[in-house]
């Protein structure tokens, strides 16, 4: 399938050199969102809904969820993140951003395994070339 003019293959660049800066920024924002949400749950249920902390944390969670949803959907369209990750953030992020944070970790772990496997294959090819006269 052809890409429109002016759209680069960002996924190819990300897999060749490791996670892109955009993936890393989204991942850390997702972790921050999970911390905000955890704080909101603690304020709302364990501390008796102190104001204005609960209000501020609630608005922060809502704005972060909307922003992360839009950013992850855009990143999925640009092939920076997989569709599964974007769906986890956009659909499940409203009820718990932990789903998105877990998907970022899972995606990065899977990427690391592929990179290590590709690296060992390259080393094996280089070693076999060195052995042949």
How is the main sheet built?
none
How many structural units, i.e. domains? Answer: 1
Number of helices: 5
Mean pLDDT figure = 80
Distance between the termini: 42 Å
Share of helix, binned: over 70%
Can you give a write-up of this model?
This protein has 133 residues and is mostly helical. The protein has one domain (18-131). The protein contains 5 helices and no strands. The chain has helices at residues 10-17, 21-46, 53-77, 83-92, 98-131. Helix 2 (21-46) runs antiparallel to helix 3 (53-77), helix 2 runs antiparallel to helix 5 and helix 4 (83-92) runs antiparallel to helix 5. The protein is elongated. The chain starts with 9 loop residues before the first helix and ends with a helix. Residues 1-17 have low confidence and may be disordered.
Quick tags:
77% helix; mainly alpha; 5 helices; 133 residues; disordered N terminus; single chain; 0% strand
Can you give me a brief rundown of this structure?
This protein is an all-alpha fold.
Question: How would the blueprint of this fold be written?
Answer:
Elements: H1 10-17, H2 21-46, H3 53-77, H4 83-92, H5 98-131
Helix pairs in contact: 2-3, 2-5, 3-4, 4-5
